[in-house]
Amino acid sequence: MTKRMTTFLAAGAGLLALAWFVAAASPAASAPATASSLRVVPIVMKDPGCHWFRVAGKNTIRLTVNGPTAFRNLDETTVTFKGDHYFQRLAVHKTLVIGKAGVYRIKMVGQHHGDNILVLTVR
């Protein structure tokens, strides 16, 4: 191999390494996670109680998660997420990411007084 070719290959390798370093440090690489990259917890319809978190094949009304988590509404109508200074509606078959630490209460819009109120704790 000639000296000129060796220099050319070394320069190309250096540029590739620099490009990788810049891409890894870019804001896009450290952007918040999207719903597609997170664990998705379905909110499902099941009597008695009407709606539930479905986790590991079991239904529960209380859930604690560490960090951002996506929730998918598979209930029969819109549900609301209420927390400290937070209110969000989640339509059927839509996904919502909750990442702010706190305690949230999840209710179905127009729900009966005997139906479950889900409690979500985000740490």
List its traits.
123 residues; alpha+beta; 5-stranded mixed β-sheet; 1 helix; elongated
Describe the fold and architecture.
The chain has one helix at residues 3-25; strands spanning 40-46, 50-55, 58-60, 62-65, 69-74, 79-83, 86-90, 95-98, 102-108, 118-122. The chain is of the alpha+beta class. The strands form two sheets. It has a five-stranded mixed beta sheet with strand order 3-2-1-5-8, with no helix packed on it. A five-stranded mixed beta sheet has the order 4-10-9-6-7, with no helix packed on it. The relative contact order is 0.18. Residues 15-31 have low confidence and may be disordered.
Helix content: 10-25%
Measured on Cα atoms, how large is the radius of gyration? Answer: 23 Å
Oligomer: single chain
Shape: elongated
Strand content: 35-45%
Which runs of at least 5 residues are low in confidence (pLDDT < 50)? 15-31
* Main sheet strand line-up: 3-2-1-5-8
How many runs of DSSP E, i.e. beta strands?
10
Write the H/E string, N to C. Answer: HEEEEEEEEEE
Q: pLDDT average, as an integer?
A: 81
Break the fold down into its secondary structure elements and pairings.
Layout: H1 3-25, E1 40-46, E2 50-55, E3 58-60, E4 62-65, E5 69-74, E6 79-83, E7 86-90, E8 95-98, E9 102-108, E10 118-122
Parallel strand pairs: 1-5, 4-10
Antiparallel strand pairs: 1-2, 2-3, 5-8, 6-7, 6-9, 9-10
